[in-house]
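Researcher: We're teaching a course module on how sequence relates to structure. For the next exercise, students receive a sequence and then see the predicted structure as C-alpha cells, so they can try to spot secondary structure elements on their own. Here is the exercise chain.
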Amino acid sequence: MSPEKAVLDIQGQFRVYTEFYRTDAAAKTIILVNGSLATTASFAQTLRNLYPTFNVVLYDQPYSGRSKPHNLHGAPLTREEEGQLLLELIDHFNAEHVLSFSWGGAATLVALAHQPKRIESAVISSFSPVINGPMREYLDKGLDYLSAHSRYDMGHLINSTIGKHFHRFSSASTIATSAAWTVMNTTRCTITSVRCWNLIRTTT
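Model: And here is the predicted structure for the students to work with:
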C-alpha cells in the first residue's frame, strides 16, 4: 500500500505535503484532516480501516510534519486559511467525504460553511465549537508563547495542562498510538451518518 506523494502549491502561499492512497476498487475519495499537533502518521490505523473501500488523502498542515520544511512560518495560520487550504485539496483530489479529528474540525467547519458542491458527507470527531474559560486561557497563553518563540514556556504550558494527564513514563509513541486508536474507533461509524449540510445547520 504505497501512496502517491506530492508537495502541492496552495494559493501561492503554502506548500503542503500530501499522500494519496488510490485504488481501482474505490468509487469515492475521503480526505482526513489532522489535529493541530498531528501529522499524516496519526491516521495510520484509520487508513487501514478506510482503504481500499475509499481512496484516501492524508496531508500535513504547513506548520507540521513533512510540510514544515517547505514553508515560511512568520505567523500562525488562521482558521479561515486552514479552511481555504482544505477546500483547495478537496477540489484537487475530487474528494466526496471528509473526516476530521480534534482541531482539524475547525478547518473542516470553515470549509463546509462554503458548501463545496463535491462533498457528500463529513464527520467531525473529538471537537467542540464551544471554547470554555480554561481552554480560552490555554489558547491565549499558547499564542503569546508561540509569538515570542518561547519554547520553554510553551513546553511548560503543555506539560502543566495536557501533559499532566499522561503517565510520566509514557513514551511519545504510546501516546500517539492511543490517539490513533481513538481516531480508528471514531471512524467505525457510518461515513455517511453526518451530512455536512445538517452539520452546518446545527453548529451555526
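Model: If you want an answer key for the exercise: The chain has a mean pLDDT of 80. Residues 133-166 form one domain.
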